[in-house]
Amino acid sequence: MSGSVWRFAGFEYSPQSGLWRDGAQLHLGPQARQLLELLLESRGGVVSKAEIAARLWPDRPPSDDSIDRCAYLLRKPLREAGYGDLIATAYGRGLSLRATIDFLDPDGVGAPATDRRVDGRTLDLWQTAYELAGKRTRDGYERAHSAIAAAGELDPSSPAVWSLSADIAAGRAIRGHLCPAEAAAMIERDAGRALALAPGFTAALAVLGWAQAALMGRTEDGLALMDRAVGEDPTYSKVRAYRGWVLARLDRLQEAIDDTEAGLRLSPHDQGLLIQRAWLELCMGNIAESVELAHKGLFLRPDGGWLRGVAAIAASLSGDHAAAEEAARQGLELVPEDPALFAVLAAVLARAGRNGEAADMLSAARGDGGGCAAPSLFTAAALLAMDQPEAALGEISRGRDAGCPWFAFAPHDPRLAPLRDEIRRLAATEASSPLGG
Known about the structure:
Layout: E1 5-8, E2 11-14, E3 18-21, E4 24-26, H1 30-41, E5 47-48, H2 49-56, H3 66-80, E6 87-90, E7 94-97, E8 101-104, H4 120-134, H5 138-154, H6 159-174, H7 180-197, H8 202-215, H9 219-232, H10 238-249, H11 253-266, H12 271-283, H13 287-300, H14 305-317, H15 321-334, H16 339-351, H17 355-365, H18 376-385, H19 389-402, H20 420-428
Antiparallel strand pairs: 1-2, 1-8, 2-3, 3-4, 5-7, 6-7
Helix pairs in contact: 1-3, 2-4, 4-5, 5-6, 6-7, 6-8, 7-8, 8-9, 8-10, 9-10, 10-11, 10-12, 11-12, 12-13, 12-14, 13-14, 14-15, 14-16, 15-16, 16-17, 16-18, 18-19, 19-20
């Protein structure tokens, strides 16, 4: 081995020769090596997730579980070499290396400094945005957007910051916390800023493509952007979720499933992909498989409120009303005041013959008029279960005209099967979106 060498817990590492122990080299992938270097440079200190994201993914925000997966890929060879878990998780803060670290430099230059790439205040705000958006509540999303907007003001030259802002807007629209028109405008603005700074920026291409297809009615344009994003970076799992959404809109459900599976191979713990996989199976009419996938997802992500929502829908369709109600209420415990989950519970209660309670839940789903209301697909399912087919169809029609992203799934949702012919006619005569021009 030549050049600078780090020693810790019986291991030796150098950027030139890699990781060694007892004369044998241990293989590390490129991102695991970068993470190890960052942890060594910190000399045992805690490295925040935002710092890790900026170092390992300088050109885009990582997906939810990318950092956890990278930490696993570093932990595994260290553990297999005979040591326990040397990578410590400081919950809510980041990662550190449990070892005494020595740095040997034949040239006397000293230990290298961490390349921050983004200043500390921006990193703090970026990390705050990740944590708040991860809660998936209305307040969490709003605060996340405020945090990332502040990060953008501090570092307007970072495409990753602007792209994350666009992703947060998409998440707010999906969960009914932001009207489609407002979300579309935010995504166009912020993804556009990212692409002006870096024209091939994968994350911005992906979210802008989704917005064009799902919110603006420009399906082919949006799909072309997402195809370009896949070409730019096939390892970016989030584009698979966005692309699967649009493929469902084009009645290409099996392709949507294939895309979601590809995303899960890259990020097996990604909550959005786990939800989408179970949901797509339900849309294919495979109720038992949907329940199984939702439960498998919950094993990996017990914090998955919307995984419980999918499980509730599937159980209700199977006639297991008690299990359906329990799953929906558990989902609301994890994601309080989620309007779509209120609508799911309303439909579950109505299918169980409890229309009075269902009406109360539907009122909660429709919100307070402050822009937070269940997407029309879920409201329509509850109305149909309450034997109000005309009102249900009216909800679907309004959702289509407003650019509701969930309209993509209306022809496939088994809860809306009695209205399928009418919904397909609505889809075939879909008006030009007021958002897309």
